[in-house]
Every structure is written in structure tokens, then in C-alpha cells.
Here is the input.
Amino acid sequence: MPGKIKNISVLMPVYNGAKFVRQSITSVLNQTFKEFELVIVDDGSTDGTDKIIQEYTDSRIRYFRTEHSGTSAALNFGVTKCKFEWIARIDADDINTPLRLEKQAAYLEKEPETDILSSWSAYFTDPAKIIFVLREPAEHEDIVKSLGLHNPINQSAMICRKSILEENKFNESLVNNEDFELMFRLKDTCRFHILPEVLVYTRWRKDSRTFDSDNTNLYDMLYLDAFRKMQDSKSKGVHFYWASRIAWINYFYGDRSDSRGYFRNSISAKNLTAYITTFLPNKYFFKFTESRFRYRLRNIFEKTGVYSAELKTLLGKN
Here is the structure.
């Protein structure tokens, strides 16, 4: 029989998060799964974040303050302070639903071979406006395939075995994309799953590190992997698949002009749109790709009222 998960460590790094950290902490303290610790690592904030956190008297909160060294260093430090076998992540500006830990613990008890678990997410802007729901693939094989181009694992919904994060540290040389880089490293050794329901509300912020357009580290990582697999391919179909993947890697992370030949010769509405946008000036190209236009367009035809209502409740907007 699989073991019961009795305790969970929730790990939250924060840097200058005074504006939103209270909402994120509250979303963790309101979990229906009560047996957890909330490990907060303050990465040398200068905006009064420490004073807000120190207002809380809940004994489950364990607060640590370090010199400013970056998110990866804060996460690695936090892992050493976590007491329990499972570590659930949350960023200091996102919101977890009350059932997040309960549902994830139940799944992991039922499927003990799973190493890393996440969920769907609803992206929102203030004040409590849903802009799209991101429904990533649930099954391991599809998640691994996705990791060849983007990271489908929402970090504010991720729960992972502590032993994995002890043995595979976040890369402290990176200023962004540390979560993607780690998930990519783990894709051949860990078992992934994504619960097909929204357990996290992700705040869409233009000042977020997500919008840092320097993706050199991602390009090198993804391109080299895809190029090797293309070289090793034994059939035209497999070779074409990896050539297609390289085109999209160039489009998102490298020199997008290098992807035009593929898009021009492989006609579809998606490829035609990509081909046209490669001619946009950088300012407008990055604005287009970062807007998640495809998901926003789909959101127009979806009923998101239930998410809007839940988010307003979580943010105390009702």
C-alpha cells in the first residue's frame, strides 16, 4: 500500500514582494490540508517584505532572510531548511486554491511512482481579471515532449520529492528560467504528472522575470538537445520532427530569421502566422509572443466565470 503523506513543506522565495506576498501567504495558510510548514526565504528584500512576514504568528511559518543572491540560491537554501519528504512550491505573488495541497497529496498517495506533480493554472491581472486558463498536458510522455520547447510545469503548483531537489539543485548561475532548466534536466529521470484542474492563480506581471527577453541559456540547452536527436534520427519522419522543433526553438529563443525557411515550406495557419511575425521589429515581436495570444483568443470563447468568482473570493474582492 502506498504511504500516506502526513506533512508537506511549502517553499516560498521572495524578493521585494511587499505588494503581493500577504495574499500568497494567506492562500497557503487557508489550505484544507493543515499539516504543513511554510518555509519563506527572503532574498534580501529592501521594500519592507520582512516586516509583513513577521506580522504573522502562525507557528507553521518558518522565516529566513539571506543576502540577495537570486532566486536559485534562495530556493537551494530553502530546500535545506525544509523538514518533510515532499516540497510544494509557490511564488510570492501567486495564489493557491484552498484544496491545492489536499488534492495533490491524495493523487501522490494513489500514484506513488510520481516524482513531480503540478496542475493547470489561471492567469490573471489586477484587479482579479482572468486573461486565460493554461491547460497543459496531463500525462508524463506529453509533458516530457513539451519540455523540449517550453516548461509546462507551473512552479506555484509544483510539488516534488525533497530528495530530488537535494540531488539536483537549481542553477545559481542563471538570472531567469531556473525552473525550466531544472525540469529539463530531470525529464529523463523523473516521473511527471499535471492534474487537469486549476489549483493556482498566476499573476501576470510585466515586471516579472518571466518577461526577461534574454533566453540565451534556454536556446543553447534546447537547440543542442534537438540538434543531437535530429542527427541521430533513423527515418525521414523523425528527422523532420526535430527539424521542425529546431525551427520553433529559433523562433522563440534564437534568431527567428533562421526559422523562416521551415515556416515557408511547411504551410499551415500556425506556421504562416509565425512566418509573418518573424519580420516584426523586436519590440512588437516580443510583445506578440509574450502576450500568449493563442490562449487569450481561446479565452474569448470559454466560460471563465467560475474562475473569476473563485479568484475574487481568494483575494477578498467580494
In short: Strands lie at 8-14, 36-42, 61-65, 86-89, 95-96, 116-125, 129-134, 159-161, 192-203. The longest strand covers residues 192-203. Residues 295 and 301 are 10 Å apart (CA to CA). The mean pLDDT is 94.
